[in-house]
UniProtKB/TrEMBL annotation:
Enzyme class: oxidoreductase
One of the record's GO molecular function terms: 2,4-dienoyl-CoA reductase (NADPH) activity
Pfam families tied to this protein: adh_short
Keywords: NADP, Oxidoreductase
EC number(s) per entry: 1.3.1.124
Organism whose genome encodes this protein: Lyophyllum shimeji
Reactions the enzyme catalyzes: a (2E,4E)-dienoyl-CoA + NADPH + H(+) = a 4,5-saturated-(3E)-enoyl-CoA + NADP(+); a (2E,4Z)-dienoyl-CoA + NADPH + H(+) = a 4,5-saturated-(3E)-enoyl-CoA + NADP(+)
Upper classification of the organism: Eukaryota, Fungi, Dikarya, Basidiomycota, Agaricomycotina
SUPFAM superfamilies registered for this protein in UniProt: NAD(P)-binding Rossmann-fold domains
Gene (UniProt): SPS19
One GO BP annotation of this record: fatty acid catabolic process
One Gene Ontology CC term in the entry: peroxisome
Keyword Oxidoreductase appears in the UniProt entry: yes
Annotated protein name in UniProt: 2,4-dienoyl-CoA reductase [(3E)-enoyl-CoA-producing]
Top-level taxonomic group: Eukaryota
Length: 175
């Protein structure tokens, strides 16, 4: 007889952290319209942060922003951009700054597509996002960057992509 799997009980983050720990802060999240990044955005918003969710599909972003705002009582705005295109990314940042006046946290989303797309989005997209937001994050005196890649790995190639992304980001931040 096989041992039964252990299931970790789920704990509401508001039972662990102050409900308003991120009050007045702003999250900029690429890939925030769906998947794990949407979940991370919601969790941060539940603690008082406002958010800008960024992606290529404006209809998905608009719907997700509306749902996140309603679920959390915070403000979430959609900002259409492709992280492989620095100009559209800067436009999304400008929209965020215009609405909220700051960016405190950045989450760089992930992609699970073909190798070239993964390299472009997960590595180049992370680099472009960090490069474009770092002056705003430094101004807020909170230096926090998050990547969701490792939590969704599906084999050795995914882990290598995670490490490539981290190495590229580390080299940029040290320069």
């Amino acid at each position: 007889m096989a041992p039964s799997p252990y299931v970790v009980p789920q704990v509401d983050s508001t039972a662990v952290f102050k409900p308003d720990i991120f009050k007045g802060k702003v999250l900029f999240c690429t890939g925030g319209g769906s998947g794990i990044c949407r979940g991370m955005t919601e969790a941060i918003m539940r603690h008082g942060a406002n958010a800008a969710i960024v992606g290529r599909k404006l209809d998905r972003l608009t719907q997700a922003a509306k749902e996140l705002s309603e679920a959390t009582g915070q403000t979430c705005i959609p900002a259409q951009a492709d992280v492989r295109d620095p100009k559209t990314l800067r436009d999304a940042i400008d929209k965020t700054i215009e609405k909220f006046g700051r960016i405190d946290f950045v989450i760089c989303g992930l992609s699970e597509n073909a190798f070239r797309t993964v390299v472009e989005i997960d590595t180049l997209g992370t680099y472009n996002t960090i490069k474009a937001t770092i002056s705003h994050v430094r101004a807020s005196k909170v230096l926090t960057f998050t990547s969701a890649q490792l939590s969704t790995t599906k084999g050795p190639l995914s882990k290598h992509m995670y490490l490539l992304r981290k190495r590229a980001l580390t080299r940029y931040l040290l320069c």
